[in-house]
């Protein structure tokens, strides 16, 4: 096996590196807080989606100390819409752990002991923020490695093989001297040239060393196992607002999917559609309920179809509010509503408006 030339990749990176808000420019030392925050946000999320959230987080929590001191509800609200909400809870817990120990550790093994930091994230922080000569292996690096070595074992089974092969990519003297730049160069190569579809092999600094390119198989790698169809679950949620413009909300349990996030009240999510009578028996308020539509949302392991029912009431009874809380409509934007609930709220508001317009017309 021929190790591709590290100097060629670094030369390409010096000319074509992406400008990203969490990257240190002009020879400055990377801030571990910025690196860690961006890496946690980038898990399962695109750079384009992350940038505004990252900038908002830095404005709200400019230091790891500020993040550690913030209430969890504020952190969850700032994260709302970014998805995979366990990351936000771990982010908060990790910030508190980092402050308690006096700062971020520099070594991979110590970083892995912190909440929410796994093998890849520990390696990325160590390499980028602290100059530890390790290769962080994410999806980009897996793809690059599979193509470089023409590795046909399908994912996820190939992960150990690809990780072992990737370990040697930084064996050269320049990669050892510039571990932060080398790690980020790999990320940029995967994001810009060695892309999942139609890789730009003609522009790649490692073209001559790529066994996949030589074999004509690069575009088809890495191989993947056939995906299993996601099961579908069904639920009914209730959007209800009073004459004062307050919406009835509740907080989800502290464990499980979307833990501690805010939602409009609703049924459990089950494998079969809810009969109307059974769903209405769980309604959070006595009201004239109107169908607003169906929200479809995809989670990692299942798809969800939520029927949204909407209503207005003059005022809520105390018993109706006891299991939740009221929030003025004007403050919904700042609530810790996950994406699926924002869809439900938007559909409920639209459904009410359309129903009332039809009555007045």
Written description of the protein model:
This protein is of the alpha+beta class and 361 residues long. It folds into two domains: 6-220, Orthogonal Bundle (Endonuclease III, domain 1), CATH 1.10.340; 232-360, Nucleoside Triphosphate Pyrophosphohydrolase. It contains 16 helices and six strands. The chain has helices at 6-16, 32-42, 47-60, 64-69, 72-79, 86-101, 108-111, 119-130, 139-148, 159-166, 173-177, 179-192, 211-215, 276-280, 318-321, 339-360, and strands spanning 232-241, 246-251, 262-263, 290-298, 303-312, 325-328. The protein has a three-stranded mixed beta sheet with strand order 1-5-4, covered by helices on one side. A hairpin with a 4-residue loop joins strand 4 and strand 5 (303-312).
The major β-sheet equals: 3 strands, mixed
Query: Which CATH architecture of the largest domain would you pick?
Result: Orthogonal Bundle
Overall number of strands: 6
**Considering DSSP H and I runs of 4 or more, what fraction of the residues is helical?**
40-55%
Tally of structural domains: 2
What is the structural class?
alpha+beta
End-to-end separation:
75 Å
CATH class of the largest domain: Mainly Alpha
The CATH superfamily of the largest domain is Hypothetical protein, domain 2
- The secondary-structure element order is HHHHHHHHHHHHHEEEHEEHEH
| Rg (C-alpha, Å) | 25 Å
Envelope shape: elongated
What proportion strand? 5-15%
State the strand order across the main sheet: 1-5-4
- Mean model confidence by pLDDT: 95
Low-confidence stretches: none
CATH level 3 topology of the largest domain: Endonuclease III, domain 1
Number of helical segments? Answer: 16
């Amino acid at each position: 096996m021929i190790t591709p030339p590290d100097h060629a990749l670094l030369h390409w990176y010096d000319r074509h590196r992406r400008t990203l808000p969490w990257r240190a420019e002009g020879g400055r030392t990377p801030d571990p807080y910025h690196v860690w925050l961006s890496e946690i946000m980038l898990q399962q999320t695109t750079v384009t989606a992350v940038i505004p959230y990252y900038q908002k987080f830095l404005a709200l929590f400019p230091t790891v100390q500020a993040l550690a001191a913030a209430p969890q509800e504020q952190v969850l609200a700032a994260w709302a819409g970014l998805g995979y909400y366990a990351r936000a809870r771990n982010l908060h817990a990790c910030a508190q752990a980092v402050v308690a120990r006096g700062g971020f550790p520099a070594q991979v093994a110590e970083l892995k002991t912190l909440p929410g930091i796994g093998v890849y994230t520990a390696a990325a922080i160590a390499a980028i923020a602290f100059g530890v000569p390790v290769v962080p292996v994410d999806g980009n690096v897996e793809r690059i490695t599979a193509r470089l070595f023409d590795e046909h074992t399908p994912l996820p089974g190939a992960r150990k093989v690809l990780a072992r092969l990737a370990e040697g990519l930084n064996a050269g003297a320049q990669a050892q001297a510039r571990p932060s730049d080398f790690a980020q160069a790999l990320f940029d190569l995967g994001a810009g040239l060695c892309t999942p579809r139609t890789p730009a092999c003609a522009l790649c600094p490692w073209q001559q060393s790529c066994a996949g390119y030589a074999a004509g198989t690069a575009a088809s790698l890495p191989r993947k196992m056939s995906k299993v169809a996601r099961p579908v679950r069904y639920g009914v949620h209730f959007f209800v607002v009073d004459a004062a413009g307050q919406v009835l909300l509740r907080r989800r349990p502290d464990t499980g999917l979307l833990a501690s996030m805010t939602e409009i009240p609703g049924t459990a999510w089950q494998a079969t559609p809810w009969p109307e009578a059974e769903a209405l028996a769980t309604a959070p308020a006595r009201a004239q309920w109107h169908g607003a539509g169906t929200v479809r949302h995809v989670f990692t392991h299942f798809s969800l179809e939520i029927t949204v029912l909407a209503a207005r009431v003059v005022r809520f009874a105390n018993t109706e509010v006891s299991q939740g809380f009221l929030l003025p409509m004007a403050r919904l934007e700042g609530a810790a509503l996950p994406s699926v609930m924002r869809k439900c709220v938007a559909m409920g508001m639209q459904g009410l408006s359309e129903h009332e317009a039809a009555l007045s017309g």
